Amino acid sequence: MRAFAAERNWNSYHDPKSVILALVGEVGELAELFQWLPAGAARELAGAEPLRTRASEEISDVLLYLILLADVLGIDLAASAQAKLDDNARRYPAPASPG
Amino acid sequence: MRAFAAERNWNSYHDPKSVILALVGEVGELAELFQWLPAGAARELAGAEPLRTRASEEISDVLLYLILLADVLGIDLAASAQAKLDDNARRYPAPASPG
Amino acid sequence: MRAFAAERNWNSYHDPKSVILALVGEVGELAELFQWLPAGAARELAGAEPLRTRASEEISDVLLYLILLADVLGIDLAASAQAKLDDNARRYPAPASPG
Amino acid sequence: MRAFAAERNWNSYHDPKSVILALVGEVGELAELFQWLPAGAARELAGAEPLRTRASEEISDVLLYLILLADVLGIDLAASAQAKLDDNARRYPAPASPG
Predict the structure, then answer these.
(1) D66 — contact with chain A (CB < 8 Å)?
(2) Contact at 8 Å (CB) between B46 and B37?
(3) Does A22 contact D at CB distance below 8 Å?
(4) Which residues of B touch D39 (CB under 8 A)?
(5) HSE-CB of C54 using CA atoms within 13 angstroms
(6) What is the pLDDT of residues A24-83, one digit of tens each?
(7) Phi-psi bin for D76: left (phi > 0), alpha (psi -120 to 50), beta?
(8) What subunits make at least 3 CB pairs under 8 angstroms with D?
(9) Following DSSP, what letter does each residue of C68-82 receive, concatenated?
(10) What are phi and psi of B62, to 5 degrees?
(11) Per DSSP, which regions of C1-99 are E strands?
(12) Which residues in chain C touch residue B57, judged by CB atoms under 8 angstroms apart?
């Protein structure tokens, strides 16, 4: 992604607020795919074509802007997400399993 | 808007979560209009055509879904917004004017 | 709202991209209220307290930033929304009523 | 994340529309961190504490819901994102380097 942006001279556009707005745009496209689906059938409908491919693309677009944002901010996304998972496990302890 | 939805038998789609997703979709389209504009020039660029008309349309789309959501939930949007304004004035007091 | 912002010297913060991000923040708070509600019960649950007041507040917050954005851009929100409604009526004709 | 949700009996909440709303909530929190920062200083400000840690956490929250959504839909997120990158390279060819 860094090479992709650099080759097109797009780096100057990638200030954090602009990238977040681009992320919001992609989240909006993702929401539009699902908005009128019946809640109970959404998982099944989105697991089949043609929705499956479109959902994959929109989820990927969100991910790519999220990675770009992390890169612009110098954030190690994998380490940060793992830390958040560990933190969630502490904040929401699992119920003890019986037995 | 009520007549519009009723005539098309769309009311059954208008559960709150679906309407919020539709709202998110329109907010996404609004964000896309502005995402790569230089921050300092966005106001001037969006005040002139062709962006002005497109921004008006997207802002209106967000408003219409917001009104639909309030209607679905039985919320009086005008009264509620006025109450929020009054509340904001209490929470963020204006600095005393000199003199 | 203009007086409110002017008295607090907040106008300089109200460039369009910043206001859209603030709008996104409020839409996020609205989404959080509804995210884990069962789709079929969301309307009823949000029509009763304590959710009703919180939903009113979040919807109002979204509306206030939307009005601020329209004002910053010099857009007449009421006229623009009415034009969009008329346009929707043309684009999605109601089915002829029987009889 | 699968184990985390299963241990807490949260899987029943994870229909796609609910997860997208949760994602929207986290995107809103991310937007709120940046909304009033001057555009030109946002990168530098967010690269230093205390904003850096908070931005990391919000970006991670978005990522975790995005991964959850992909998992719920049976989408291979890494393969899908790589395909999207390849597609972007085709759609937006880099200018030829001089030489």
Answers:
(1) yes
(2) yes
(3) no
(4) 38-40
(5) 13
(6) 999 999 999 999 999 999 999 998 899 999 999 999 999 999 999 999 999 999 999 999
(7) beta
(8) A, B, C
(9) HHHHHHT--HHHHHH
(10) -60, -45
(11) none
(12) 80, 84
Q: Which of B4, B24, B55 sits opposite C75 (nearest CB)?
A: B55
Task: Please write the tens of the pLDDT for every residue from B38-56.
Answer: 999 999 999 889 999 999 9
Whether ipTM tops 0.85, in short, is yes
Q: Is C20 close to B34, i.e. CB distance below 8 A? A: yes
DSSP notation for chain B: -HHHHHHTT-GGG--HHHHHHHHHHHHHHHHHHHTTS-GGGHHHHHTSTTHHHHHHHHHHHHHHHHHHHHHHHT--HHHHHHHHHHHHHHHSPPPPPP-
State how far residue D22 is from chain B, nearest Cα, in angstroms. Answer: 11
Q: What is the pTM of this model?
A: 0.94
A66: CB partners within 8 A, 6+ apart = A23, A77, D59, D62, D63, D66
Upstream peptide bond of C16 is cis (omega within 30 degrees of 0): no
For B60, which of C16, C31, C81 is closest by C-beta distance? Answer: C81
Interface membership of D18 toward B (CB under 8 Å): yes
Cα–Cα distance, C17 to A13 (Å, whole number): 13
